[in-house]
Amino acid sequence: MSEISTRDAARDGANARDSALSVAAISSERTQSDDNVWTRRLVLFLRVMALLSILKGLYHWAQVTGFVGGEDEAFENQSMAWQAATVYFAVIELVAAVGLWLATPWGAVVWLTTVVSMAVIELMFPGIYGGSLVVVGVEVFMLAAYLALAWMAARERPP
After folding, report:
1. Rounded distance, CA 42 to CA 156, Å?
2. For the chain: N or C, fewer Cβ within 10 A?
3. 37: how many CB neighbours lie within 10 A of its CB?
């Protein structure tokens, strides 16, 4: 009889330990997800920027292929600088979109390159795309939002 009661006690102890482990796993998931609020926001921001990059890249490809614009605005009728910038952004925006969607470090670097490149072209070479300060303002805003989110996400991770 004592052998059966010892076995039952061991089984009850194992069941209690298993339920305690499963409760601990659930509670650790909850606190872990609460601790990574800024990281989740950063990933959401990167995904939104990925969608925007896809749209911008496809728009530039539409310019190259002639799907947008009239006969006067055709790709071959534009200046060499405009053509080079348009092809550059058509390629790099789509590459950045893939990296941003995957939330990889290289995706953020490529995206930052596109943001800075567009701002520089608008400010330093207004003859290419027209020098719109609105475009520069939007690019600076997106850059500032990324830097703020990345900083907040880095603060919530232990050193």
Report:
1. 12
2. C
3. 12
Which DSSP string corresponds to 45-100? HHHHHHHHHHHHHHHHHHHHHTSSS-STT-GGGS-HHHHHHHHHHHHHHHHHHHHH
Q: Give the end-to-end CA distance of the chain in Å, rounded to a whole number.
A: 56
Distance of alpha carbon 151 from alpha carbon 159, whole angstroms: 13
The position carrying tokens 């567009």 is 118
Amino acid in the structure at residue 130: G
Assess whether pLDDT exceeds 90 at residue 53: yes
Q: What is the dihedral of CA 45, 57, 82, 117, to 10 degrees?
A: 30
Residue type, 60: H
Tokens 């053509």 found at: 83
The model carries a pTM of 0.74
Q: What is the DSSP letter of 157?
A: S
* CB 117, CB 88: distance < 8 Å: yes
Are 63 and 87 in contact by the 8 Å Cβ rule? The answer is: no
pLDDT tens digits, 6-23? 566 555 655 555 555 554
Q: List the one residue out of 127, 132, 133, 93 whose CA is nearest residue 113.
A: 93
